[in-house]
Amino acid sequence: MIVYDICDNLAVVDQWELERSYYWICCDQKEIHKLEVIFSAETIEECQNFRQYPRIDYYKNYSFMVFNALDNEELEIIPREIDIYLGKSFIVTVYKNEVKLISNLMEDIEKDKNCFILKENCKPYIILYYILDRLIINNYNIIADLETEADRIELDILKSPKSKHINKLVSLRRESYKLRKLLNPLRYIGDALLLNENNVIEHDHMYLFKNLNDKIEKLLASMESLAQDLAMVREAYEAEIGIRTNELMKAFTIITAVFLPLQLITAIFGMSFEHIPFKNDRFAFEGLIGTMAFLVVILMAIFKGKKIL
């Protein structure tokens, strides 16, 4: 467990008291029991048992929140849960594995980069704002990556549809459903943050969380757009397969139409009658082949004239 002093540019402190300064406490799920004096046993247990869906609970002196930081590993969505306690003088982040967006946020704060609101007001809820803001941006980038892959698959389908494309599309749709399941609760969390039932967030800075709520709505709109894009790509695949099938059936039909009269001629001359005209002529075979070739040329000309070919 590491304790940072928010007002001292995230300097690490060994001794701390909640009312002396504002602190950011980072710990993993195995260390959260050290704070069981401050927090309820229910939330401590939830921090130790991950795989919770995003939500927010209000307590008298703090709020408990669950979020998922998403990672994109070769177009597979991997959720990494972050549990957050927010009080008036502290913010506690609990996670099982290292979360990149939190470590990146710490680096930016130390370098005075993209954190000017915190420099003006070093309150814990500003840290929460930055975490959620980066969480939303990270999730939006993942949606953008999936959309880019969907566009690439669509272009490949238009060039030459193959079975591997539908397999990739099914995989993308599965990740899209997983994404929707993980992100949909954010809509209600955004509304709950605006309620601010225990007044942990100062009213003068509620506009920041209203801004977050607007970003959440845009994020969810992007997610719905992704679902529509995937549906359109699937329709494009089915349409392209339908076109290819029609072209193949058209080719078979033309071949059948060309060979049908030829089969009829060979069937007639193959009959076992004793008297068949031209059967015993010297040039009967050459004449028959020539007639067949002439019929093929005539039929091809007719098909081309009717724009069937």
TrEMBL record:
It is found in: Cell membrane. Gene3D superfamilies: CorA soluble domain-like, Magnesium transport protein CorA, transmembrane region. It is a multi-pass membrane protein. Keywords: Cell membrane, Coiled coil, Membrane, Transmembrane, Transmembrane helix, Transport. InterPro entries: CorA_cytoplasmic_dom, CorA_TM1_TM2, MgTranspt_CorA/ZnTranspt_ZntB. It comes from the Bacteria. One of its GO terms (molecular function) is magnesium ion transmembrane transporter activity. Residues 209-236 form a coiled coil. This is Cobalt/magnesium transport protein CorA. It comes from Clostridium fungisolvens.
